[in-house]
Specification:
heterodimer; A: alpha/beta; Rossmann fold; 6-stranded mixed β-sheet; 9 helices; disordered N terminus; B: mainly alpha; 12 helices; about 85% helix
């Protein structure tokens, strides 16, 4: 994840290296170095105040970076022409409330570069897609937050973008709406689009994303692939053994980033299945008597809490 | 350029759907009615008094100037109040995020909004000026000397104020920008009247102060040029008139106002193009 290429790889939708942003000398993003491959659903996770929104705004050209470099769809960030291929649902989407739903979509379609004839057809299609076809002629003024969110998603998709940024797309939606968003995101991946997803709902991320990255204090601190069935490839392994040496935790540093011992129970994270027999072999070699081993996938929430740490109330 | 026209169109529709514009038109209609009633009673009063038709025409022309000046004031205030929220407000609410990430440069976004509001200003000034002149002509038979020049100059004044409002909107919050825009207009207003007063006081210091305010904010000086163009030469020479030709802004002053408008709008484009949204 860190140390991306100086020249963007064509197979990557996003390449950033050392991207940073300060506001009045206060760093908001210290080191955003990540790669998002084309065609994947990428989850962007972090606690409040970690720099997620600023990072997304930099990638979209809304905020100028203080340093570093970044390429989106092979072009430097902020490139106007590249935006034809980018869709964006801002967090807490709002727009002129005197427009009707169809007027709003036609405006966004035209601004995105669609011809007048095509924009009318696409507006109908995306309204249908987000379940808002019955409200096409209603003004936004009377819409609930959930309806505005659906409309925001529709405007992000109207021009069939290659790269879609969704900032808290399920905010304000009921369970049926959240399922609709999940289905829409998967449909976008199926047609070859890349989705950059920022959400607080880890369960949503877990079942939707191919890969996630964690940002903390303005820097990417970890990333991981998620399995097809959802959840992490990382296993939480529990070993019950007697006669473990006192220095066992430090001895395992080469196999696991995190291990603890509580009496006869050793717990550690295995980033792949191959680590488990290697650790058990080492335990036996150092004289421990192993009598039980179990391995369970770690949930994204557990990983998030471990990486992000305590709630700092931001 | 397509983005400019799209933004201009949506801005014009936004302005037209705002209650403020219709309130300003309503206020103009009320003032027009008051103006008509006042003119009516003045005409009745003239009927019972022997007066040279020439002098009478000058007085009627002066009253017409009062009506047009009211239109000018309303147009300037309406320009500020309708447009002050369009940049600062959309930045603070986040509305601009969905637009600024579309494939149009920020200058196009700003230019489109400016054109939209400019269209609204032209329509507002045209309606209120035409209404005032029509009422004046119907009741008195008096017409401004050069109504088209007056209309163009007042429109120019509003566009200058619009450029200043846009610039302030790229730097400050809605409230701060609004107070600053109205404050600058008040300074220009006072400077213009100080120059008028200097006609009586003959104070060079007051003239200098008036010129300085016109340099800082040249909007009121455009109105004084418009007044010069619209009233009769005799009415303009009456030193007791509030619109007396005491200090007529020159062509160079108008060129300065034009350059000022372009520079301020360019500064707004520059600032908006570089600021974080």
């Amino acid at each position: 994840m860190n140390g991306g290429p100086a020249v963007p790889a064509v197979e990557n939708a996003i390449d950033t290296r050392g991207l940073r942003k300060s506001f009045g000398g206060r760093p908001a993003v210290r080191d955003l170095s990540l790669t998002v491959r084309r065609g994947e659903i990428f989850g962007f996770l972090g606690p409040n105040g970690a720099g997620k929104s600023t990072s997304i705004k930099m990638l979209l050209g809304l905020v100028a970076p203080s340093g570093g470099e970044a390429f989106v769809l092979g072009a430097p960030i902020g490139d106007v022409e590249t935006r034809r291929q980018i869709g964006f649902l801002p967090e807490d989407f709002r727009f002129y409330d005197w427009l009707t739903a169809i007027e709003l979509l036609e405006l966004h379609g035209r601004l995105a570069g669609l011809a007048a004839g095509r924009v009318r057809r696409r507006a109908r299609e995306v309204l249908e897609l987000v379940g808002m076809a019955a409200h096409a002629r209603r003004r936004l003024r009377g819409f609930s937050k959930g309806m505005l969110q659906r409309l925001g998603l529709a405007q992000a998709l109207i021009h069939e973008p290659t790269l879609i940024f969704l900032d808290e797309p399920t905010s304000g939606l009921d369970p049926i709406g959240r399922r609709m968003v999940r289905d829409v995101i998967r449909a976008q991946r199926d047609r070859g689009a890349t989705v950059f997803l920022n959400s607080h709902l880890l369960s949503e991320i877990e079942v939707t994303c191919d890969r996630v990255a964690f940002i903390k204090d303005g820097a990417i601190v970890a990333s991981q692939e998620l399995t097809a069935a959802g959840g992490s490839e990382t296993r939480l392994v529990s070993v019950r053994a007697r006669k473990m040496p006192d220095a066992i935790v430090s001895q395992l540093a080469g196999w696991t980033p995190h291990a603890t011992v509580d009496g006869e129970e050793l717990r550690f994270e295995a980033v792949s299945e191959a680590v488990v027999p290697a650790v058990v072999r080492h335990l036996v070699d150092v004289g421990a008597e192993v009598f039980h081993v179990s391995a369970e996938p770690t949930s994204l929430e557990e990983t998030f809490v471990r990486i992000v740490g305590e709630d700092r109330g931001l | 350029m397509n983005g400019v026209w799209l933004m201009a169109g949506i801005t014009l529709r936004e302005a037209a759907r705002r209650r403020l514009l219709w309130t300003a038109l309503g206020a103009a209609a009320i003032l027009l009615a008051v103006f008509a009633v006042a003119l009516h009673f003045q005409m009745l009063e003239f009927e019972g008094r022997p007066m040279s038709p020439f002098v009478r025409y000058q007085v009627e022309s002066g009253m017409l100037m009062i009506g047009l000046y009211t239109c000018d004031l309303l147009a300037v205030v309406m320009t500020i109040l309708t447009s002050i929220d369009t940049i600062a407000g959309e930045i603070s609410s986040g509305t601009i995020h969905a637009i600024a990430t579309k494939p149009l440069a920020r200058w196009e976004l700003l230019a489109g909004k400016f054109l939209g509001f400019a269209g609204m200003v032209v329509a507002y000034v045209a309606i209120t000026f035409a209404g005032t002149i029509a009422v004046g002509y119907a009741l008195t038979g008096a017409l401004p000397e050069h109504p088209v020049r007056g209309f163009l100059l007042v429109t120019f004044e509003c566009l200058l104020v619009l450029a200043v409002t846009f610039y302030l909107g790229t730097r400050f919050t809605t409230l701060t920008a609004g107070v600053a825009a109205l404050g600058l207009q008040a300074v220009a207003f006072m400077g213009g009247w100080l120059e008028q007063v200097s006609g009586f006081s003959q104070s060079q210091q007051i003239v200098t102060l008036g010129v300085a305010t016109s340099v800082l904010m040249p909007s009121e000086s455009i109105w004084r040029r418009a007044a010069f163009e619209m009233q009769t030469p005799l009415a303009g020479s009456l030193s007791f008139s509030p619109f007396a030709n005491v200090s007529i802004p020159s062509g160079a002053a108008l060129l300065y106002a034009g350059a000022f408008t372009i520079c301020v709008f360019s500064a707004a484009v520059y600032r908006f193009g570089r600021r974080d949204l």
